[in-house]
Amino acid sequence: MSGGVDSSVAAAILVEQGYDVIGVTMQLWDYSQNESSCDPNSKFDTCCSLDDVADARLVAHKLGIPFYVFDYQDDFKENVVDYFTDEYLKGRTPNPCVACNTFLKFDHLLDRAQRLGCDYVATGHYAQIHYDEVYGQYKLVKGLDSKKDQSYFLFSMTQDRLSKVLFPVGNLTKTEVRIIAEKYGLVNAAKKESMEICFIPNNDYAKFIAERTSEEDLIKGDIRHEDGRLLSKHDGIHQFTVGQRKGLKISSEYPLYVTRIDSETGTVFAGEDKYLYRSGFSFKKFHMIRNFGNSIDFEVKIRYRSQPCAAILEKNGETVSLKFVTQQKSVTPGQIAVLYLGDEVVGGGFIDKVFV
Question: Which residue ranges does the record annotate as region Interaction with tRNA (predicted)?
Answer without folding.
Answer: 148-150, 303-304
